[in-house]
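Query protein
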Amino acid sequence: MKLIIFDCDGTLVDSQHMICAAMQQAYEAHGLPVPPTEKLLSIVGLSLPDAFRRLAGLSGSGEDHPVDGLVTCYKTAFAALRQSDRHLEPLYPGARAALDALGRRPDTLLGIATGKSQRGVRAVLGRHGLSGRFATIQTADDAPSKPHPGMVLAAMRQTGVPPCDTVMVGDTVYDVEMARAAGVRAIGVGWGYHPPEALAAAGVDALLGDFSELAAALDRLWVAASSPQPMAATYL
């Protein structure tokens, strides 16, 4: 069996407006300046505590920064936004078709590894009619924040698929670093929240410009995995 693990925000769904709106409310509730959008999107994929610490430039626990309060406010704001029609988390073009095609492969399992909570990712999947598509869903509730390999390692344990048959698909450097730390291949997507140049520098095995390119990229990686010669990165 093959295991394809997807990131969620910035890879399957475009949640940037929800994330930025919830971040704004959290910072304003604490009387703190709101970081620019580019900086907010740069931390998407991390667990919320790690994200707020990184935004504040903290290397330690950050006792003098209201990380816990910001996390609580963010969660409250995000939950309220999800209940409204003002902010949606649409699937990226081609995402459903790609998942449908992979789901028809008898030798393929799908997974998710995301900085979202279990509740959050299941809400997104339910909204888009994707519940039940994924054999494993790993979140910030269950493992350390990306780029720690814990989520990918747990997904492989749960499915019984080894690293040589596992690929991580994501839009951030954190996804690539997580994949590398877990000993699996990484495919970067060019439509998310980190620039393609950063993904290339992080060492992706393939870089996609569109979901329609995913199947061919996976096939090339499987062939490369069975070959004694290492595969150079492919940029589509």
Summary: The CA atoms of residues 67 and 74 lie 10 Å apart. Residues 228-236 have pLDDT under 50 and may be disordered.
